[in-house]
Amino acid sequence: MELGPIFRALMYNKSRFWLITLEVALTLAIVANCVNLLLDTRREFLRDTGLDEPNLLVISTTPFDDAFDEDDFVHALEEEDLRRLRSTPGVVDAMAIQQIPLSGGGSATGRRPIDAPPESEGTGMPYFRVSDHALQTLGVELTAGRDFAEGDFEEREEGSENELGRNVILTQAAADALFPDGGAVGQQIQNSGGEIVDVVVGVVRKMHNSWPRSEFAANGEVVMLKPGSPGSAERMRYMVRSEPGAIDSLYTEVEALMLQTQSGRVVDVQTLTEYKEDYYSDALVMIKMLTSVVVLLLVVTALGIVGLTSFSVTQRTRQIGTRRALGATRTDIVRYFLIENWMITGIGIVIGIVLTYGLNYALVQYADVPTIEWTFLIGGALAMWLTGILAAVAPALRASTVAPEIATRSV
Amino acid sequence: MLAYQIRIAFKSLRRNPLQSGLLIAGVALGIAISTSFVTTYYMLSGDPIPEKSDRLFHVAVDSWDPDNGWDSDHPEYAPNQLTYTDVRGLMQSDLPTYQSAAFKAAMTVQPEAENEKPYREIVRMAFSDFFPMFNVPFQYGTGWSRSADEGPDPVVVIDAETNRKLFGGEDSVGRTLRLDNRDYTVVGVLDEWRPTIHFYDVNNNPFEEPEAIYLPFNFVEPLELQSSGNDSGWKFYAGNEFQDFLQSESVWLQLWVQLDDRRQQEEYKSFLDAYVMEQKKAGRFQRPLNNRIYPVMEWLEREEVTPDQAKVMLIIGALFLIVCSVNLIGILLGKFLARAPEVGVRRALGASRTSVFMQHLVECELIGALGGALGLGLSVLVLRVINRWFDNQFQFQLDLTMVLAATLLALAAGFIAGVYPSWRICRVAPATYLKIQ
Amino acid sequence: MINMQNIQKIYRTEHVETHALSGFNLNIGSGEFVSLMGPSGSGKTTLLNVAGLLDAFDGGSYILDGEDVSRLNDRQMSRIRNEKIGFIFQSFNLIPDLNVFDNVDVPLRYRGLAAGARRERIEEALEIVGLTSRISHYPAQLSGGQQQRVAVARAVVGTPKLILADEPTGNLDSAMANEIMDLLEKINDLGTTVVIVTHDPELATRSPRQIYLLDGRLVDLEKDERPAPLYNPVENGTADNGMSA
Q1: What is the pLDDT of residue A410?
Q2: Residue A100 has what DSSP assignment?
Q3: pLDDT at B239 (0 to 100)
């Protein structure tokens, strides 16, 4: 191997060296950060929600008939809607709910253990008011305690003690936040003023609330399910869990079913995935933009390397001829240019790694992006290296076709 | 001289069309990506109402929990919305030129035509001042009068889209719109109005479109309307009646005022302080006195409206252009140095170093200018693609400032990339190429 | 050393065939010092290219140092150039990015010698040309004569049996030219066959055997029968592309 002279020649002839190095370094810094960002966003989008997401359908109805102003009418209709939905072929189960998980719109309150000192800060507690069959419809997995039972859904008598308290189910994240030492089931929790006291009867493994993109509530994993009748004169919402593959046909059927049961309301049907995609839309667009940038950047850099290497081959035609005259085989010439290119790319990558961390630091400070993972750095470095090699192959092959007799030409 | 140099530069570019094409395409790509990314940033963070943004103020009073501040990271922040009680109290002031409390609610539109299905729409509940204060443009009619606020009179303002949908786009002033089983008379139809930032209410999606329908705020009590945006509370209130909610410490309303000069602003601040001191006597506002009026841009900054993604894309776009420029330096260097013999002859025939340098720099600027022009065209396409990716939620487009900025950027890129290669070629010695080595 | 029989070399363009060498015969014995002269276009460079295996030929046979080199592939030709032949060019052809040491090192690198052995040989070769003190200079820092001496060192470093020198003094003034000729004679004295192509009849007279080339045919001359020059000795040439840094 002739690493020494190749490197020394490179150092003697700096402009070509620095241009490619700089380009490789910058490209690596940008590509690694983009990939870090887009994979982080993608992972965030695809992470486990605890829900049977692909099979969930959301029906949102908005009443406009005055009949809905009566609470009894709403409750009776809710039961009738649920009964009809559950008996529709292709439906696994259905529930009523007041807000939609993963949608960006929801409700939150605060809770703390009943024996916590009054000045202690409570836990921010996103909650869903749900009808029966909630766990079965959402597809969440009960890990401790029990599911809701029949009596849990009944309204407590007006004026009775703890009229607003309920038996509630928490996610594991919520249980951990309130009771770091475990043993949440059976505990009493209250709001900040102490007017509402709930009892934890069950814990589910995982369920995302309405804001999984927010850091609030343990990245969207703190949830309290509160039994009751979620419908109101403002809005009645249902979630339907379909059998696998049945969601498309249900999608078109349910609007008619709802209006057939009761007119005087606007019915909107969407899949839970559509809500989620809507909530994540800017992130999804950013993924597309970043991907395009990465691809374009690699193409631009590859073309740049091809250009600069071609130029250096043209410039060194006589030198190549001389080397051939002095006994270099074609392979030696190809190897020379490839090794030279690997060196330049390699040094560019080393500088690029420093730049990558620098850029990442700046982005973290300025725009709250995640810290880069070293695996992306390795991936980016490999991609750059491969780009460098591929870009150098054509010029190097061209160099090897320079005839040795060039050396005796006087031009 | 310059014209001559430009002509020579054109000739030089034509000599190797493929290489010149690549050079220009490189600049164009860099300009297109950076310009369109900067445009998105600029539109997502720019001043939505530049003609008066320093005279419009968001009112913030600290009615929050005495034990825990509104934002634990920023203890100096008062809540970002107001209670109904405080809006009622503050709207009594006659100091502001314009003032309007507002919130959004969901209502059902019931079209007259039998075969049209009712649909849900977001309605902004506001005072008459809302329209002149935010320079809302009208296609037909106007906003309602201040006396209609008091009634409240059953009047409604609709946007152009709703007008197209319900009334075929004709002048519908005087027609009737049915919402939640009640009739309202149309008094105004908005012209196309799409500030990129929903600056007067950034609580949910700060980039959503303006509401389709506007009703007098004072219908909130008779209709028992609740916000379809955010409402936040810290204090438990008893009772299930709507009045119990209205009197609670829940914050769910925005209040904007227009204050045209310093004196007016000072007076309004004194008014706020006096109001809060009065409320303290009644046992409310237990936190330290913390009233502020935020001009539009300061408010958007406090509420961190500019998405992190836009900031990231801004940086990435700028770096992309830098990579393209480095690339340009490399190719130009090759192009120019390959021409060294010819330059040697010209130098021997009397061309000065400066003139060789200038000639080559002009060529770089020509590449920059052509690339910039092509890049501007490309960025229109890129922005269209981005708009489509966003389902046309935004209308990102170039404005004059961006076109100028992109042009300057392209010329700067041509210059920066051109200086070094031009310097190298102008230092070619005249003798070298006339004698045998 | 060189034994050529009936060598044909034809240059073809689309419409024209040029017979640069036709039925060419040449014998040069081991240890000879031969000058090759001839006017422009007489085929000197072609002969040199063929003899140095820099270019293929179209017919005939060529025995170099007892080895038939008429039908070799590129790799085999490279090996023979590297091991048996040392080249000296008119425009030196030093590699501008490499210092003197690395320039002389180039042919050895293609031979796979250990670093220590290479260093020893390089220092020895530079000793012969008297440039040990310039070992880490770059070509641009050397005079023309010094550059050509480096080229001579590079030609001899691999201890070839044959040195082919193409106008080795063409770019040098006469004092330097004589220095180079002294060096070549010194190398010839050590047993290496030397063939130089030159325009300069003065220099040619320094070699025991002179060959005159005319239209691809050979005229072998004894020293005393040398005719008056039939050609313009100051052959013109354009420079190589010296841009490098």
Answers
A1: 66
A2: -
A3: 75
Whole-number Å distance between alpha carbons of C218 and C204: 16
At residue B402, what are phi and psi to the nearest 5 degrees? -70, -40
Range C31-53+73-224: architecture per CATH = 3-Layer(aba) Sandwich (3.40)
Subunits next to B (3 or more Cβ pairs <8 Å) are A, C
Query: pLDDT tens-digit profile of C167-199?
Result: 888 888 888 888 889 999 999 998 999 999 888
Give the 3-state secondary structure of residue A272.
helix
pLDDT band at residue C233 under the 50/70/90 scheme: very low
Q: Do B437 and C239 touch (CB under 8 A)?
A: yes
Query: In chain A, what residues touch C245 (CB-CB under 8 Å)?
Result: 12-13
pLDDT value, residue A5:
84
**What pLDDT sits at residue A77?**
93
Q: Does C159 touch chain A (CB under 8 A)?
A: no
Q: Considering only the C-alpha atoms of chain B, give the largest distance between any 2 of them, rounded to a whole number of Å.
A: 104
> Strand pairing partners for C164?
C87, C195
Phi, psi of C191 (to 5 degrees): 110, 0
- Give the N- to C-terminal CA distance of chain C in Å, as an integer: 40
- pLDDT > 90: percent of chain B: 54
The whole-number pLDDT of residue C244 equals 35
Interchain CB distance below 8 Å, B340 and C237: no
pLDDT in tens, B178-190: 998 899 999 999 9
Mean pLDDT across the stretch A157-167? 82
Tokens representing B402 are: 């961006």
- Residues of chain B in contact with residue C242, where contact means CB-CB under 8 angstroms, are 432, 437
Question: What is the spatial distance between Cα B114 and Cα A185, in angstroms, rounded to a whole number?
Answer: 55
- What per-residue confidence (pLDDT) applies to C228? 44
Beta-strand pair B213-216/A224-227: unpaired
Residues within 8 A of C (CB atoms), A 323-362 only: 323-332
Kindly state the DSSP code that residue A98 receives in the 8-state scheme: S
Domain boundaries, chain B: 2-47+307-426, 62-290
Q: What is the pLDDT of residues C85-111, one digit of tens each?
A: 999 998 889 998 899 999 999 999 888
Of B337, B428, B437, the CB nearest to C240: B437
Distance from CA of C143 to the nearest CA of A (A): 19
Indicate the length of chain C as a whole number. 245
State the Cα–Cα distance between residues B259 and A291, nearest whole angstrom.
46
Both tokens assigned to B422: 């031009």
Mean local confidence (pLDDT), B191-195: 90
User: Which residues of chain C are within 8 Å of residue B341 when distances are taken between CB atoms?
Assistant: 241
C-chain residues within 8 Å CB-CB of A410? Answer: 90-91, 167, 237-238, 240
User: Domain residues of chain C, as ranges?
Assistant: 31-53+73-224
**Interface touch A328/C78, C-beta < 8 Å:** yes
- Residue B311 has its nearest CB partner, among A22, A23, A366, at A366
* Amino acid identity for residue A58 in this structure: V
**A67-98: pLDDT as tens digits:** 888 888 999 999 999 999 999 999 999 999 99
Residue B110 with chain A: CB contacts under 8 Å: 64
Does the beta-carbon distance from B181 to A65 stay under 8 Å?
yes
Q: What residues in A contact C74, CB-CB < 8 Å?
A: 329-330
Per-domain boundaries in chain A: 3-46+282-408, 53-278
**CB contact (8 A) between residue B327 and residue A268:** no
Distance of residue A266 Cα from the nearest chain B Cα, in angstroms? 6
How far apart are the two ends of chain A, measured CA to CA in Å?
31
CB contact under 8 A, A121 and B390: no
